Amino acid sequence: MILVLGGTSDSLKIAETLEGSGYDVCFSVVTDYGEQLAEKKVKKITKGRMDQEQMKQFVLDHNVSLILDGTHPFAAIVSKTAIAASKEAGVAYVRYERPRVNLEHAVKVSSNEEACQWVNENISGTIYLTTGSKTLKFFRDNVSFEDIVARILPTAEVLIETEKLGFQAHQIEGIKGPFSVEMNKALMTKNGAKVMITKESGIAGGILEKIEACHQMGIPCVVIAREDIDYPKLFNDTAELYKCLEEYK
């Protein structure tokens, strides 16, 4: 069986394609929302976070021969956990990651801390934050909180957590992307954005449209770069990935 670690639209599409081609696949998700999406596409699903020992045990208990890591480019902890678990369990590990894009017209930074420093030194006014709900507390504590408008996934779980962090209704934009250039411009214009902060999520995550929208509006787009990880085997092209996986059918 192939254990596909989900968290992106790419990973779910890969799992669906593999299952449709006759592979025995189990798709791993963390959230209720992820499970709801997966139930429409694949048969076998496991839900819940796994540490290294739990992942190793899952691999051994379910006769997993390969871990296919399709998690979000910023889920570095999960990727490192999967690499270590695969080594301990003696099974193969393969990483699929969205291709990187040209960040021309963007302000590229290496961390959340650096993003905050740049914004604090260069921006006065509304900060349009599209880095995901997991980073909200950090940005709340490290930039001008009252200036943040956070674009988040409109699920009950995320909205409740955002409100618990102290965000008011006018600071929350619950809407699911990705969006076109024009939609990004409309949302930022509505909120009077002076800067966007986002992640290097890749083409599927709408990064190019975000950068272009900011460029057309004449405001900076601060992009937090992915962490560089030494993956045992990495693919950015699905055709090459599927060819590699033929031996696991």
TrEMBL record:
One family name in Pfam for this protein: CbiJ
UniProt GO MF annotations: precorrin-6A reductase activity
Cross-referenced PROSITE patterns: COBK_CBIJ
GO biological process: cobalamin biosynthetic process
EC code: 1.3.1.54
Pathway field: Cofactor biosynthesis; adenosylcobalamin biosynthesis
Keyword Lyase appears in the UniProt entry: no
Keyword Transport: no
Annotated keywords: Cobalamin biosynthesis, Oxidoreductase
Superkingdom: Bacteria
InterPro entries, A to Z: Precorrin-6x_reduct (IPR003723)
NCBIfam families to which the protein is assigned, alphabetical: precor6x_red (TIGR00715)
Protein's UniProt name: Precorrin-6A reductase
Source species: Vagococcus carniphilus
